[in-house]
Amino acid sequence: MKKIGILHGKERSFPEAFVQRIQSKAVEGIQAEPVRIEKVMQGADSGYAVIVDRISQDVPFYRAFLKNAAISGTAVINNPFWWSADEKFFNNALATKIGVPVPKTVILPSRDLPDDTSDESFSNLAYPLNWKGIFEYVGFPAYMKPFAGGGWKNVYRLASMDEFFEKHAETGQLVMLLQEEIVFEEYYRCYCIGHKHVRIMPYEPRNPHHLRYAAEHKPSAELFATMQGMVLRINQFLGYDFNTVELAVRDGVPYAIDFCNPAPDADLRSVGEENFEWVVETMAGYAIERAQKHRPGCDNLSWGEYLRSSIAGLPLR
């Protein structure tokens, strides 16, 4: 019997529906359940062919458990090694190399010194930074947000240089991105599962949270195909099995705004019934597929084209 587990925190609607959907399919040799951890011993098999991770970004113990499970053969969705290495600035840099439009973006050192460092720790860093060049490149208005953060925590919309310095002083030890504002006509949030299944959802980030999926706009067939291709390309290069990509459309061109969401919102109350049904059914089917392809004792993780190309010494394309 091959077990599919889901590792989650306080969320309930998606994990419970995911387990129930797999069980209802009654696929021979496959069963699903919430992951149960009683002890974690080095190099020990987790007992799961597949684990869907919804919480390790917030719980380091779980991330360590998943890495141990992965080296013992579990197919972890998403790859915990890549997830540990990834962040938003790298994603933007990668996008510029694979032909995906993104806002002009720079990364900034933290306003306050990290713990256990001093001024001498930063002898390689120019002071002051070339703020004039940074501001001319990005422009105003601009957004400032953590380079490794999630959701809308510590996100600022800045109208001027003076406002930037005022707000940057509040960010403490956070490493921030400064990003060009894309004034959009349409906005979409897109699920991508298994590097092949895409759900493009009209989205309005300026609405209250519970109404963000209540957007009325619809993409043309041409725009739909363009966005679908971008979403697939991003996730094929990053290697994420489950992710969301946010696209802002300006003058007919979709810009990838945020595409580092490996534990994306899948709550029934926020995404709505139709989107919820799609993500439960598609994720259940994909997890079953991964369980059926599982090879005991082997590396069953997904690795993106960026790493594959790097190992082979090939240019990104």
Summarize the SSE layout with pairings.
Layout lengths: L1 E6 L5 H13 L4 E5 L15 E4 L6 H12 L3 E3 L2 H6 L2 H10 L7 E4 L22 H8 L3 E5 L9 E3 L2 H8 L7 E5 L5 E8 L3 E6 L18 H18 L3 E9 L2 E6 L9 H4 L1 H21 L11 H8 L5
Parallel strand pairs: 1-2, 1-3, 3-4
Antiparallel strand pairs: 5-8, 6-7, 6-8, 9-10, 9-11, 11-12
Question: How would you sum up this structure, described in words?
Answer:
This protein has 317 residues and is an alpha/beta fold. Among the domains are: 90 residues, Rossmann fold (3-Layer(aba) Sandwich); 77 residues, 2-Layer Sandwich (Dna Ligase, domain 1), CATH 3.30.1490. The chain is 34% helix and 20% strand. It contains ten helices and twelve strands. The strands form three sheets. The protein has a four-stranded parallel beta sheet with strand order 2-1-3-4, sandwiched between helices. It has a four-stranded antiparallel beta sheet with strand order 5-8-6-7, sandwiched between helices. A four-stranded antiparallel beta sheet has the order 10-9-11-12. Helix 1 packs across helix 9. The model has no long low-confidence stretch (mean pLDDT 95).
Give the gist of this structure.
It contains ten helices and twelve strands. With 317 residues, it is α/β, with parallel strands linked by helices.
